[in-house]
Design brief:
Length: about 60
């Protein structure tokens, strides 16, 4: 069974990692390389929410 958090396009894995780190920085969450299981649910949610927000903004700009 495939992990639910795997990258669909393997070539994009590094770009997604940079995107995650940038999004975390923007919301004030200090991520480290590798394991980040010590984050609170709120911190992890903030990072994920920021990533989704930026993806939606990018998609909307592309629609214009």
């Amino acid at each position: 069974m495939k992990s639910s958090n795997s990258v669909m396009v393997p070539e994009a894995k590094e770009a997604m990692e940079r995107f995650k780190m940038q999004s975390a920085s923007e919301v004030g969450v200090n991520l480290k390389q590798g394991y980040n299981g010590d984050l609170t649910s709120r911190q992890a949610g903030s990072v994920g929410g920021q990533m989704v927000k930026k993806m939606i903004e990018s998609y909307e700009k592309g629609m214009k």
